[in-house]
């Protein structure tokens, strides 16, 4: 059974940091990604990473502030978020890009 479980969200002040984690199980995952969604808006990609970790993509809005990484031995994907802004407030989802699996999401709220 394929499962993606996100954790690490919370409430933080602007300028603060959070580290999101995604625990993956049930299959071998290739390219993984983080998405975020604000109620009433589309789910947008934040960052992605290839299996080797050598290929990374970041949305323009998070470049220089967020960093995606993975530990294949532990089947974990991470999103380090620094210098958080109120506009980063959203529900963050882990995604298996190749097969379309999603986690349940973890809420990130950044106060001004």
Task: Give an overview in words.
With 112 residues, the protein is mainly β. The protein contains no helices and eleven strands. The strands form two sheets. Strands 2, 4, 5, 6, 9, 10 and 11 form a seven-stranded mixed sheet that branches. A four-stranded antiparallel sheet has the order 1-3-8-7, with no helix packed on it. A hairpin with a 6-residue loop joins strand 4 (32-37) and strand 5. The N and C termini lie far apart (40 Å). 29% of the residues are buried.
What is the topological layout?
Layout: E1 3-7, E2 10-13, E3 18-25, E4 32-37, E5 44-49, E6 56-58, E7 66-71, E8 76-81, E9 90-96, E10 101-102, E11 106-111
Parallel strand pairs: 2-11
Antiparallel strand pairs: 1-3, 3-8, 4-5, 4-9, 5-6, 7-8, 9-10, 9-11
């Amino acid at each position: 059974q394929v499962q993606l479980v996100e954790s690490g969200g919370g409430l933080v002040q602007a300028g603060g940091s959070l580290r999101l984690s995604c625990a993956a199980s049930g299959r071998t995952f290739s390219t993984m990604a983080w998405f975020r969604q604000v109620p009433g808006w589309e789910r947008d990609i934040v960052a992605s990473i290839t299996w080797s970790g050598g290929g990374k993509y970041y949305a323009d809005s998070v470049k220089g502030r967020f960093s995606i990484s993975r530990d294949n031995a532990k089947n974990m994907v991470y999103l380090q978020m620094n210098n958080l802004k109120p506009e980063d407030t959203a529900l963050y989802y882990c995604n298996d890009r190749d097969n379309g699996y999603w986690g349940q999401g973890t809420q990130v709220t950044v106060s001004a």
